[in-house]
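Researcher: Let's do a round of design. I'm pasting the structure tokens now; please hold your answer until I've finished.
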């Protein structure tokens, strides 16, 4: 302990030599240091990678040893791999990724250390396809029937498991229908190469300019009787259907002379009057819209016979 202490010695003269010691005793320090670290801990230039108790001596202010014992706990950082496949984009912890690649985010684990997660991401794209179709009256696509022109979409699944969106640009053209009535005193009536010898309703189907059907119905009445041969002419039209010109050929049965040809539409409206200059007269139909028209033959005796011509 610190204090004053004396000891007596004999000096050279043979007398007592009393020495008094004024003593100060300083204590060595012993210190404990408790530390928790992630992965490793550096202490006074030394790196520790494992949990354990470690000591290092220092010199305190009094010049004595200061022994410090480190009680160290080392916790490891977590490393995790996450594999994901997504369509178009992937959202992870508030971040949206649009391309395939490896991405990392750092979290905190239960020990308070880093938890590093690496995302191995594959992003597959949605397919976008355009389909252009034209149909008559309706179009069936994948079990759905569409009756009007427009843009329609259906969604399928592609080989990558993502959406395959197909947009159908659809044009619907309507089939046309028309009808006309013929009354004839001849035994048979010839229409577009087909001969009809009985009264009735007959249809023929043509192709309109829009590529769809044009269905024409003939309401035919044949009335062969005593007065039939009083008609002054037999009329034949060719070509029929016609595109530019239809030729009207007639045969006169008596001394009467034919006068003029009338071209009428299906509603009976007069469109042209063409003088008959011989046994065959040409009628220009090139400027007419596609459809059915009538040719009326007027003679000097006002006898009339009608035939129809199809313009297309």
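Researcher: That's everything. Go ahead.
Model: Designed sequence:
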């Amino acid at each position: 302990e610190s204090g004053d202490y004396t000891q007596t010695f004999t000096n050279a003269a043979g007398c007592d030599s009393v020495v008094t010691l004024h003593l100060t005793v300083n204590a060595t320090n012993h210190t404990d240091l408790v530390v928790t670290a992630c992965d490793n801990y550096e202490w006074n230039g030394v790196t520790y990678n494992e949990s354990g108790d470690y000591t290092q001596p220092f010199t305190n202010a009094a010049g004595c040893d200061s022994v410090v014992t480190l009680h160290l706990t080392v916790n490891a950082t977590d490393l995790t791999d996450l594999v994901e496949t997504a369509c178009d984009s992937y959202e992870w912890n508030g971040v949206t990724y649009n391309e395939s690649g490896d991405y990392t985010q750092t979290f905190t684990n239960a020990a308070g250390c880093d938890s590093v997660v690496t995302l191995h991401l594959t992003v597959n794209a949605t397919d976008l396809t355009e389909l252009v179709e034209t149909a008559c009256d309706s179009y069936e696509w994948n079990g759905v029937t569409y009756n009007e022109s427009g843009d329609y979409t259906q969604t399928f699944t592609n080989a990558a498991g993502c959406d395959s969106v197909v947009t159908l640009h659809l044009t619907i053209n309507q089939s046309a229908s028309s009808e006309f009535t013929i009354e004839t005193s001849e035994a048979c009536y010839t229409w577009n190469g087909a001969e009809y010898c009985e009264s009735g309703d007959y249809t023929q189907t043509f192709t309109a300019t829009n590529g769809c059907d044009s269905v024409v119905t003939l309401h035919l009445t044949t009335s062969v009787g005593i007065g039939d041969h009083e008609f002054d002419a037999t009329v034949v039209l060719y070509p029929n259907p016609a595109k530019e010109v239809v030729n009207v050929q007639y045969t006169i049965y008596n001394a009467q002379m034919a006068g003029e040809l009338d071209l009428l539409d299906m509603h009976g409206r007069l469109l042209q009057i063409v003088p008959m200059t011989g046994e065959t007269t040409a009628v220009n139909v090139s400027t007419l819209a596609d459809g059915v028209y009538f040719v009326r033959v007027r003679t000097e005796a006002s006898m009339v016979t009608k035939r129809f011509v199809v313009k297309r």
